[in-house]
Structure formats: C-alpha cells, structure tokens
Design goal:
single chain, 276 residues, alpha/beta, Rossmann fold, 11 strands, binds adenosine-5'-triphosphate, binds magnesium ion
Length: 276
C-alpha cells in the first residue's frame, strides 16, 4: 500500500490505555491527541506515573492502546498483526529504553547487532554494521566487554548505538540520560542532536528541563493527558520527501564532541484547550 510522503510521521487521536480490571482498573492514557511531523525533536516531560513510558511503548509498537487511533505515516497500525508490528519496528523504529535493557549474556557488539537479526541480515554483516556503529560512539575498544563491565555512560551509548544500528527514521528514547551526570548527559544529547540533524524524528522522555533546549518542541503530560505543547526555536529538520531519508550508516561519524553552551530557547506555549 502506498503512503503519502507528506503525511505526519505519527498521528494519535483520542488514544486511551487502561491497566487492571474491575475496581483495580485505572486509566493511564486518557485521550491523547498528538500529531508529529517528520524531522521534529520532541521532548516529553511530566511527573512520574503520568504515562510517558506507556505512550512511548505504544508509539514504538511494543504495546497497544485500548481506544483511539494511531496512524504511522498515514497508516492505521492498530489492526496490524504482532508480526507486522515487529517488521515495522525493525525497519523504522529505534528504541532506547528507560533502563537500557542490554541483554546481560551478550557482549557489547552482539547487543548492538541484535536488531539486525530480526531483519534477516547474515551474522558477519551484522557484526560489521554493529562495529561501525560502535566506532561512531567511540566504543570500539569495548566491543567484547560484557554489559556489567561498562560504566553508566558507556552502557547508555551502547543502548543508543543499538537503537540506531538499523537506521531507523524514528528514534524513541525513554530518559536516555537516566542517571548520568551533566557532562555525560550533554554528550548523549549531542549524539541525539546529530541524529536529528540527519533528518530523523526524535521523541525523547526526560525529567531534566535543561535538556529540552535540544528539542524543537516540548510536550508536558499530566494524568495521562497532554497538558502543554510548546514549539522552541530549535528548527525542525526539513526532510526532502522526494529523496530517500538519510541513512545513519552512510552518515559521517560525528566529530569528537565539544560541549556547546546553549542559550535557553524562547518558547511559544500552547496550553491544552487553547485555540490552535
Ligand atoms: N504493565 C502495567 N500494569 C499495570 N499498571 C501499569 C503497567 N505499566 C504501567 N502501569 C502504571 O501506569 C502508570 C504510568 O506508568 P508509566 O510507566 O507510563 O509512567 P511514566 O510517566 O513513564 O513514569 P516515570 O517518570 O516514573 O518513568 C503508572 O501508575 C504505572 O503504575
Ligand atoms: Mg517512564
């Protein structure tokens, strides 16, 4: 089926998710409406338990909504089979999990190569691509380390390398800077920023307000709803839809990072309920 190349990358309408049954039932997502265009870098904030991870899991096709519509590139995804979801995930989506989720019994290079297994790429090629990705993240010397031998920052860089190895057009990152200190956080953010500049759409959950300066749009959630939606002055990367999107494998390795001081972006906030 042909899809419209100018369609939003993601469109949600009245999305709901409930957990539990009977008296224990509670609504975690309570009617989320959201349109995300190609090339946006979205930061999602909000108090613990407001539904950020739940939303990201649904966006990443790891979970299903109970109600509402989810269109991915103009195509409704709810009715698709689990197998089709897995295919879409392996072709289009890179996921950085809140708790990293490296597979403990696999070494670093095997962890990074894992998403390519689901694409049916043969082992030698998988390891070559994973090695190249690790080089980009200055982790070549750690290829044969086990996850428990890495520092927090290295673990997170491996998790990001794994999320990007299949050249996803959408990167979902759940608190990618987790418990990292400020310097390590900004290095990770510079990596995500580079990926954004190469034409990819980034949706990142964070608790750290200073990291939202990297985003082109900041969304806050409260009690399973979108509470505010703010465009920043960071540009949305224009994506030429007549060309194939940029391939992260083909992209140049980012230069050694220098921490830039960033002026806080001026914002225009649209409170939910205000006229658009
Ligand atoms: N599998 C589940 N079964 C039952 N309840 C769940 C499940 N997953 C999440 N919840 C509940 O849904 C609510 C939202 O959880 P979610 O993980 O989306 O929050 P969050 O905004 O990501 O929080 P945090 O900032 O702490 O990561 C919480 O109250 C949580 O207890
Ligand atoms: Mg969470």
């Amino acid at each position: 089926m042909k899809t419209n190349p100018d369609a939003p990358v993601i469109a949600l309408r009245g999305l709901k998710k409930r957990y539990g049954i009977g008296d224990a039932e509670h609504t975690v997502l309570d009617g989320v409406d959201l349109v995300i265009e190609k090339g946006e870098f979205i930061a999602i904030m909000g108090p613990s338990g407001c539904g950020k991870t739940t939303l990201l899991n649904i966006l990443g096709l790891l979970d299903r909504a109970d109600d509402g519509d989810y269109f991915l590139a103009d195509r409704s995804v709810e009715s698709l089979s689990a197998r089709r979801h897995a295919n879409i995930r392996s072709e289009q989506i890179g996921f950085v999990f809140q708790n990293f989720n490296l597979v403990p019994r696999l070494n670093v290079i095997e962890n990074v190569a894992l998403p390519l297994t689901y694409k049916g790429i043969r082992k030698t090629k998988r390891l070559q691509l994973a090695s190249k990705m690790l080089q980009t993240f200055h982790l070549s010397e750690r290829e044969y380390y086990m996850p428990w031998q890495l520092s927090g920052g290295q673990t997170q860089r491996v998790a990001i390398a794994r999320a990007l190895v299949n050249s996803p057009s959408i990167v979902l990152a759940d608190e990618p800077t987790g418990n990292l200190d400020s310097k390590a956080s900004h290095v990770i953010m510079e990596e995500l920023s580079d990926i954004h500049k190469r034409g990819n759409t980034i949706i990142m959950v964070t608790h750290n307000p200073s990291l939202t300066t990297y985003a082109s749009r900041v969304i806050t959630m409260l009690d399973g709803k979108i509470d505010s939606d703010t465009k920043t002055l960071q540009p949305t990367v224009k994506v030429d839809t007549t060309k194939k999107r940029l391939d992260t494998h083909a992209a140049e390795a980012p230069k050694e990072k220098t921490l830039r001081s960033r002026r806080p972006a001026k914002r225009k906030t649209i409170k939910k309920g205000a006229s658009k």
